[in-house]
Amino acid sequence: MVLSVGSGWQANARLYPPQSEAKAVEIPYPNHCVDVDSLRLDSALRLIEQSGQPIEDDREVPQAYVQSVIDALCSLSSRDSLTGLSNRRSFSQAIDRELDRVARMGDVALLLMVDIDHFKIVNDTHGHIVGDEVIKQMAQRLLDCVRPMDTVARFGGEEFAVVLPNCSQTYSEVVAERIRHAVEDRPFHVGPGLALSLTVSVGGAYAPQWIRSEAAIWIERADRQLYRAKRGGRNRVCLEETFDTVVSTEEKELLYGALNFGGLGAMAAMTQDGNDGALHS
Amino acid sequence: MSTAASPSPTRPSVVYKPMFPVDPKRAMVFAVTSGKGGVGKTFVSANTAAALAKRGLRVLVLDADLGLANLDVVLNLYPKTTLHDVFTGKATLREAILKAPGGFDVLLAGSGLVEYSRLTSDVRDQFQTVLHDVMLDYDVVILDTGAGISDVVLYAISLADEVLLVSTPEPTSLTDAYATVKVLAAQQGRRTIRVAINQTLQPGEGRIITTQLQRVVDRFVPVLGSGPVMLTHIGDIPSDTLVRNAVQKRQLLFTSMPGSAPAQAIAGMASRLGDLVQRWQTTRVAG
């Protein structure tokens, strides 16, 4: 029996034994079949437990088969069922690994958050089946835009995350724009005679070099750029240049405009710095 | 086939993760930083170390200003062995640790470390190994960082459990201190930063400045996950010609003029930091 999984990644999902051999090897499981689509964790665990035990009738459990079930379950637990992309859990692993690497090597790593613009309208107008189809095609377009070493994950809903290790600043802009164009330039054919023109907003942030930090901070920074792209009118890329060390006039005014208490401290500062007077408005 | 609705992405709260796991048996690591140079960072590091030592704590000041160290100048030490020799294998760590006049230990970078002014994996590993090796021998390790917010400075700060930000009331110094807070919040998820204001001209000035800094932070620094950045005022050091004299004579003010107002202020700061250390040492570690 072939274990059939969602259509997105059937190539990887064919489990041993393949259909042609299904009759040759007798598999001692109920109905000789594991339906991975509807497989739940508890039944999967039972399945694995059972495979270690002698089965009532003395047929041998093919070890390779058991291994393949375990492998498939591992793969299943790291993939998003609709798109075949990394799911949140394996994305977390990828991003933690990358943070550790960057902390050690000090090289440049980029995180992109990609969100489909006005996706709710697609769902509301054409239904969830079409919405799902858009998400699937979007996943493929994202994969086509990046290097094999990059991790593309479904972050949730219509939001995707891409981890790009060793990604120079020039390449960052190229790849982010490539993603934006890959969506904008070709409509999505999602049904007979139904082609949707869509756009994405992309936000990106770099991992802090040399410093061991939290994935959550990195994600939040990239997210903030994504919201900036959304606010800026969507269908655009916003990358965090570097850490924000620029102190705006507004900030400066609030910082020491009010510190004229008795004039003493500020006066002293002015006389020491000479030309700083303009800052005390 | 349609999947079940994806759960809305949950965003975990951000809590600063120390480089070294919290362990009450190891030293609590403080990073002294300022943004702007020349605000008295090294003066504060050295004198606070002396004040903490006087409170009975085992203190090591580690020169983390790898490029342009001047802790040796402040302490009037002319070390034969430095961190540089440890890094290059010419000396052991114990040989490079010196006794400073204030009753604490120092590990000086030495000016030979100019080549370390840029961070590489090597420097990082060596520095971290050194810190790791001394941690169990002290109650407090003070990292005297360099000026600015270069990758070396940010890296050194990332090793610390607590950040002590030094500023003067000057607008330029305040601006750089504020920029440092911004970067630390965004880059490292720092949520608590201790502030010391050096060279204040009137009582209460430092607290007013810290309050004002906090106001700007609340208004302009984005809140990440776990909540806003909290600045805690830990002391003012009044402007005093005695400080200049001590620095010029290369004396440690805290020991040479213990009754002076700046020395008293340092003692007050050390008492607050000492409380933090005590709390640290009584932390119960899960597991």
Q: How much strand content do the residues of chain B show?
A: 15-25%
What is the CATH architecture assignment of the largest domain in chain A? 2-Layer Sandwich
Which parts of chain B are unreliable, with pLDDT below 50 for 5 consecutive residues or more? 1-15
| Low-confidence blocks of residues of chain A | 1-33, 52-58, 261-281
Q: Strand portion of chain A, in percent?
A: 5-15%
What does this structure look like?
- The complex is a heterodimer of chains A (281) and B (287).
- Chain A is an alpha+beta fold and 281 residues long.
- Chain A folds into 3 domains: 7-78, no CATH class; 88-239, Alpha-Beta Plaits (2-Layer Sandwich), CATH 3.30.70.270; 249-279, no CATH class.
- Chain A has 10 helices and 7 strands.
- In chain A, strand 2 and strand 3 (159-164) form a beta hairpin.
- Residues 1-33, 52-58 and 261-281 of chain A have low confidence and may be disordered.
- Chain B has 287 residues and is of the alpha/beta class.
- Chain B has a domain at 28-169 and 242-279: P-loop containing nucleotide triphosphate hydrolases (Rossmann fold), CATH 3.40.50.300.
- Helix content of chain B is 41%, strand content 16%.
- Chain B is built from 11 helices and 8 strands.
- In chain B, strands 3-4-2-5-1-6-7-8 form an 8-stranded mixed sheet, sandwiched between helices.
- In chain B, helix 1 (41-54) crosses helix 11 (261-281).
- The radius of gyration of chain B is 19 Å and the shape is globular.
- The model of chain B is unreliable at 1-15 (pLDDT under 50).
- The chains are: A alpha+beta (281), B alpha/beta (287).
Quick overview of this protein structure:
The complex is a heterodimer of chains A (281) and B (287). With 281 residues, chain A is of the alpha+beta class.
